[in-house]
Write a structure and sequence with these properties.
By secondary structure, the chain is α+β, with helices and mostly antiparallel strands.
Length: about 600
């Protein structure tokens, strides 16, 4: 597992030095409303009444609404949609802990390269921002003022300006100690001249820093301030930046409570929308949305509004994007801005309220496809019925959902002035013609279904954990000294096979050493699931809800009661399993051994009963 590369003592130090309350407060406004716990509006689902709880004593969080929970590392993983190692690095950087680099030379060199390039990009962003505030940035400031961009918005997006000098940024970098020519070239900010010297890629342009989802500068976009061409230029691909893998302003939009992302074309569209209060806007950094960008969006939402320009190129890009997003399980709607305006123009002309109304009225995917089909087949003011019906039926035939097909068949029939039945018949004819139904072997289908049921049952048995097991481990994580009082001493094999025994094996060794904490227990459950639910969520719910007695004797009594109840259920499950094996066993010697085990088990159960 990736997290094993970071020494456990470093992980524990990172967790210990990142108190969960101030970490969460970077994302959620918390209020102390219930005993020792803090409450706030959950950042993981939309709600009006706070149900998100943070326990400073246990160093865990849990939402009673959406049931997500975990420790401070799990919170960063969930809120930043990142991996375990990356979450550790974020938290380590926050408190100044250095994580050792892997031993192999290739990994060490790459880590060093990326760190140096990140430092260069950050310093470049600072330089461009400073130039924007200077006399050299007067023209760029005037342009932003004409576009209605406020000073606070400029700071929020880190907007800057590249001077008209050929080597302004290069000389600045030299002055800051960045003198490695090869390294500077790898940043994508410079070009090599005829005399082998470097000059700036961006000159005389308004500068847009491009951040990754974690808020690190990875590239830049630059816009001219006059009518010269090209209007925009963007950073080339570098070790830090791969085109088609980022969404502009996602670092800001990911914290929006809108419940969706609005994907538009340009930097200025995004900036104007955020300034107008539409804080869920991102840009595709080009008109062609890529599969990688769709996967990135899917990490943060299941709902996307496409808001590309109303011209032909924008509409065609929207059509391509619809299918890319829908193929990744995203519900897509399309923003229709009237009069051929882009979002930035519309907001400046009509204000944020009317624009928000457009977002709320975005067209469903199928409505938009049929609208484009209708536009494509207009001849003046008349609709070419034959061409439209051909394109519309092809669109419906590609739709897998039969309910959606029939619903929109009625709408197409209305346009064609025919019956819904005739449109449905034509659509189904096309589906059967283009995708002939395969011949199925009924017996093979049944055997396959039986095998899948068997595998599902086996998987369920190896992917479960009982309430008693969760409560016992949670109690022992709070009071590890209780473990020595339990008879028989709990062992991993006493827990449910699979997730239960794996968690117990990891937890019991730390409990015996007296090093496990409730937050540490969450850490051990990273990447474990129970029937599709993260085990961290289950443990967090138990930790928040477990009523721990005040005295040691009462705590011990509670632990013994939980352990006894679990042992009884566990032994009964083993007994049922042995009974099943006895019915299936034909070998006399093996049958005798099974009966001996059953007798011994029955005797123990009778004692406990």
């Amino acid at each position: 597992m990736a997290k094993a590369r970071i020494p456990e003592q470093i992980v524990e130090e990172i967790r210990a030095r990142n108190d969960i309350v101030p970490v969460v407060e970077q994302y959620v406004r918390l209020e102390k409303r219930s005993g020792a716990n803090f409450f706030g509006l959950c950042p993981f689902h939309r709600e009006d009444t706070p149900s998100f709880s943070v326990s400073p004593g246990k160093q865990i969080y849990y939402c009673f609404g959406c049931h997500k929970g975990g420790n401070v590392i799990g919170f960063i993983m969930e809120i930043e949609k990142t991996s375990y190692p990356e979450a550790l690095r974020i938290l380590a950087e926050r408190v100044g802990i250095e994580i050792p680099i892997a031993d192999d030379e290739q990994t060490r060199q790459r880590s060093e390269l990326l760190a140096n390039l990140s430092a260069i990009m950050l310093e470049a962003a600072r330089y461009f921002y400073t130039v924007l505030q200077s006399e050299a940035g007067a023209e760029a400031r005037s342009y932003l003022t004409r576009r209605g961009i406020r000073e606070s918005t400029r700071r929020k997006f880190g907007l800057g300006c590249a001077s008209k000098e050929w080597d302004g940024l290069y000389r600045h970098m030299q002055g800051k100690g960045f003198r490695d020519t090869e390294l500077l070239l790898k940043s994508g900010l410079f070009r090599k001249g005829r005399n082998e010297g470097l000059y700036d890629l961006f000159r005389g342009r308004l500068m847009f820093p491009i951040f990754d989802a974690l808020g690190r500068v990875v590239a830049f976009g630059g816009r001219v301030l006059d009518d010269s061409q090209p209007k925009y230029i963007n950073s080339p691909e570098t070790p830090l930046y791969t085109k088609g893998r980022h969404l502009y302003a996602l670092n800001l939009a990911k914290t929006s409570r809108a419940g969706h992302l609005v994907i538009v074309e340009g930097y200025m569209d995004v900036i104007s929308m955020h300034q107008a209060g539409v804080d869920c806007a991102v840009a595709a950094l080009g008109t062609a949305l890529t599969p990688n960008q769709a996967l990135l969006a899917r990490k943060y939402t299941e709902n996307v509004v496409i808001g590309f320009d109303a011209d032909a190129a924008g509409q065609n890009a929207a059509l391509r994007s619809l299918d890319i997003l829908a193929a990744r399980g995203i519900k897509v709607t399309v923003l229709m801005v009237p009069d051929g305006k882009d979002p930035d123009d519309f907001i400046r002309l009509h204000g944020p309220e009317r624009f928000q109304a457009l977002v709320d009225q975005a067209l469903p995917l199928m409505d938009f496809k049929l609208l484009v089909a209708r536009r494509n087949n207009m001849q003046g003011d008349d609709l070419n019925i034959l061409d439209f019906q051909n394109e519309a039926c092809a669109i419906l035939a590609a739709e897998e959902n039969i309910v959606v097909r029939e619903l929109y068949a009625a709408k197409v029939a209305e346009v064609l002035r025919t019956t819904t039945e005739s449109v449905v018949a034509e659509v189904e004819r096309r589906r059967h013609k283009t995708a002939a139904e395969p011949q199925h072997d009924l017996l093979r289908e049944r055997l396959l279904a039986m095998e899948q049921s068997k595998l599902a049952a086996e998987d369920a048995n190896s992917n479960s954990i009982s309430d008693e097991e969760v409560n016992l481990l949670t109690l022992l994580a709070n009071y590890p000294e209780l473990l020595a009082e339990l008879v028989p001493p709990p062992q991993p094999e006493h827990f449910t096979a699979g997730v239960g025994s794996r968690l117990a094996e990891a937890a019991l060794s730390q409990i015996r050493a007296g090093t496990l904490t409730p937050a540490g227990l969450m850490d051990l459950a990273t990447d474990m699931e129970v029937k599709g639910t993260p085990l961290q969520d289950i443990l967090a719910r138990a930790a928040m809800g477990l009523s721990i007695p005040d005295t040691r004797s009462d705590r011990l009594e509670a632990a013994i009661e939980i352990w006894t109840k679990h042992r009884f259920k566990h032994l009964k499950q083993i007994k049922d399993s042995i009974n099943l094996k006895i019915q299936q066993e034909s070998d006399p010697e093996a049958l005798s051994a099974l009966k001996q085990r059953l007798l011994k088990l029955t005797t123990e159960l009778n004692k406990r009963g």
